[in-house]
User: Fold these one by one.
Assistant:
Number 1:
Amino acid sequence: EPEVTQTPSHQVTQMGQEVILRCVPISNHLYFYWYRQILGQKVEFLVSFYNNEISEKSEIFDDQFSVERPDGSNFTLKIRSTKLEDSAMYFCASSAGSGLLGGYTFGSGTRLTVV
Amino acid sequence: AQSVTQLDSHVSVSEGTPVLLRCNYSSSYSPSLFWYVQHPNKGLQLLLKYTSAATLVKGINGFEAEFKKSETSFHLTKPSAHMSDAAEYFCVVTLSNNAGNMLTFGGGTRLMVKP
């Protein structure tokens, strides 16, 4: 069964450093998403991406965050200057259509720890 | 606006007994509803989805859920729990007319299955 792959599974970074989280969506999917889950809190939407541009973003997704699809397979989330409160599990997801029909496939997540 | 409330943060059942995980939602429009499961160190796996077709939805691994508009509920059930069902379960809602198809997650219910 096709999978969404996220690397690394766990990343530790110092406050103020830039970090890039990587995702390889399912190859024929067109919509891509990032979600995050701070420990003990709900899973929260960050951003959706379609046709090489952001289609929707939440209030969390401020100027410190950016997404990119640098080639035909990777989808990345960059945090420019990490803060302690960015520590969370970050999930990448992709969907074939707009998600309602095909469903969303999630990766296993990257646990980001900012120290 | 949309929101999801999972009424129990933890549910404990004995193997072979029924499972009931409760979910209530609020949505301004006709919602689509999903249940996802997360096993330790794994991604979020789709169990089932409701997208305005049959109100009783059957999913994988013997799970099913019934959409009740009058009660704004989408409870997840299984007739007989198995040890492998122990995991975190998320009820998720999205708006049918939301172009970005942002998912809104409930807080999760941890299901424990006793031998």
Number 2:
Amino acid sequence: GENVEQHPSTLSVQEGDSAVIKCTYSDSASNYFPWYKQELGKRPQLIIDIRSNVGEKKDQRIAVTLNKTAKHFSLHITETQPEDSAVYFCAASMNSGGYQKVTFGIGTKLQVIP
Amino acid sequence: DGGITQSPKYLFRKEGQNVTLSCEQNLNHDAMYWYRQDPGQGLRLIYYSQIVNDFQKGDIAEGYSVSREKKESFPLTVTSAQKNPTAFYLCASKTQGTESPLHFGNGTRLTVT
């Protein structure tokens, strides 16, 4: 089955600096890669996603890159703000026997220091 | 107001008792999922369902059971066979097709003593 590895597990940055979170996946059949943000005590919410036919996608201060050959994708947050502090999860989605299986990484706890 | 409702928010049970967590969605989504969240282990897939009356085991299905009698509902039963049931449980749903995101409920925190 699919295996998604995510690192680092924790990340502290100064406000205004950039943050990068990296994920790798094992199954080349995965074709959709969403990123979720989970604030303390709340549900995970989608912040950005990328499809396998796209190499990069940007939405304001957030960008995601995908390297299909190397099977890795990354989240980039620029000009970080205290409200960016949260746990971020990457995921890989694939069709498995007619079912759509979504596998998550272990999460990265991002702390933005004012 | 469309969304996914999980109830209750907090649940306490004695060891050896089965307990059922509720998940209801009014998003008209076909696919529904149950994940377990433990500190440092991310979200691990328990069961998922694509259509009514059909579901698949995820990566950690042992000690859990589900049913999908209605499109809107996907209850999860944590049985006494689950060795470490205390955790935060998240239900999610999505539309058909791999290229669509999951929508999560607010979760149920289960504590078994």
